[in-house]
Amino acid sequence: MKMNPLIVDNVSKQYGDKTAVNQIHLEVGQGEIYGLLGANGAGKTTTMRMVLGLIFPDEGRILYNGKPYSREQLSMLGYLPEERGMYPKVKINEQITYLAKLRGMSQKDADKNLKEWLERFNITEYYGMKVEELSKGNQQKIQFIAAVIHKPSIVILDEAFSGLDPVNVEQLKETVKELRDSGTTILFSTHRMEHVEELCRNMTILHRSNTVLQGNIKEIKKQFPRERVILGTEGELKGLESLGGVRQVKRMENGYEVLIERPETAQDLLRHAMAQTELTRFELMEPTLNEIFIRSVGGRNE
Amino acid sequence: MNNFWTVVGFTARNKMRTKSFIVTTVIIALIISIGVNLPFIIDRFSGDSTGDGPTVIGYVNGQAPKVTDPLGAYYERLGEDADLKLLGFADEEALRGGIEGGMIRGYLVFEDQGSAFPEVTYKAESLGGNTTSSLMLALQTIRNDIILQESGLTEAQRAALIEPVKLGTAQISTETGAETEGGETKPSGLAMGFVYVTIILLFMGIFITSQLIATEVTAEKSSRVMEILVTSVAPLTQMFGKIFGMFVVGTMQIATFVLVVIVNVSLPHNQEMLSGLDINLSELDPMMYVYAIIFYFGGYFLYATLFAAVGSIVSRTEELAQALTPVTILSMAGFYIGIFGMSAPGSTLIKVASFIPFFTPFAMFLRVGLTEPAAWEIAVGIGILLVSIFAFGWLSAKIYRTGVLMYGKRPSWKEIRKAMKAYKI
Question: Helix, strand or coil for residue B78?
């Protein structure tokens, strides 16, 4: 079997007496986006910093295409930090080519790639402008270009879509998907569960330095029981609360959301509702990642 | 190595393009130009106010002929160089009219006190310029002549009395046993001036440029570019690339100033004045230039690494000045030791300071320029400086490597040490 491009092998890291990361193990395949989730302070940043080679693990090792970390590997890593940062007063073409050159590109290639990327995002007019003159969304696009301009094979995206409007989120998301489809290995950290659900195949949820949940997202979802029923009704339904196995009933604009204890209760619920009124919708919902996350970390998100 | 030059190029290019840098350089260059040309400009202005010929001063005919006659003769003897000329008038009324008519600038009034020499008053509408000092000198000479004539001394005795005393000087060195005989003492005014100017340039080159480095590092950290930089290039490469880039910028700036001075000095109107002041730069020991460059290199790299390290610890630009205080005081102390030590270059304080690496660039240069330290002393001073550059460079690199990853409030030394251990640096 081919080795995964990025392997974080049972890595631990301590800061003094505090354990920042405890025995994390994850593997990201080629052309895969891997979700790294966790509340603030769970150890995401430390994990990513170790992957970036900024700090070294106390235990375990990190392999890039089967090889341990070395300076040469920097040119195949791309990094979009959570806190966005560019030189505010330096022209965009200058700072992007500077960063690309530091990662081993020639001035000419860097400039060519930058122009292509600007064209992609339809922002060619920003080529010679200063970062401080741009809107936040466009600054973020520039930052994104800086992270991927040197065609890295492993990309680390830390909160890639935070602070963007929905149009820009879609645009960046499409770009990330294209990167994935072209074979880039992507480690993706975020708080936004819907992005993970849409983009990632596998994920790890960290909580207080430990891995609390890990694996294929579809399989994880199957492990969690379906406990939520959406009922679309015209009229009013009575006596839902009194049914056995119903935990909570929420009145919605076009119907009800019912939380149940066992999936079988859903059938009782359907019969009960149909007897009373006409249904426009009945669905036994999969648990959302949001719910799974909150359950896993015990409601400690933020 | 490639990355190193990329960082150097980027740092230097961006710095030189900033408005503040260009404006500062131009302003300082202008101030230097004005400074160099100031004597000429003043000369020009005062020359204009008196006209091209000598200032004319009036007196009342026959009021004190024993003074006014030799006074007129005194200025006539000076011929072309005379700055004053005397003109006799009938009475004070006529003199006032003369001033009004622009014939004379002022006039002299003599009052006989019964002594050998009358009391003289110079009256004019404006008392500025050199007129009074010129008159003073002239009158003094005339009074001496009058008194000497009355004393009955012989011509030879009078000449001997007026002749200035000759004081020969010779500098000796107790270490080398050498004795330099000559008309002028060493340290000469030229050496003093050179040392003075060089110490100021050293301070500018070292301190101002180093401070810029710290500011840049902190700015990169606070704008979070650092996060990308540290993942693209080794922190050491980045730090030394930045230091070297700024070094290039600083050196070019100083070179510009030196060039401005040279151009201004070699302007024809200043050339004359310089020869008048008897300044000839070729008289300087060429080794002085070499030492100036060595100490500039040494001082710069020692302070620059320190400033970079401090800059890397701080997360916000506002906190930088405070964090820099200890290093700033150190460099200021070096500068003031250099400047105030000029009056006593042989003192123990300067000797001791010249072996403390932070002060060596200033204190040792001072000693080299104004005294004659033994060769081994210079070598030891430079040696200690070099060793400290490596030691502090190494320490700074470690701090830098740690500091750039630490955000939030300024960490204490303990926290930095802890982080270093945790990061395995």
Answer: helix
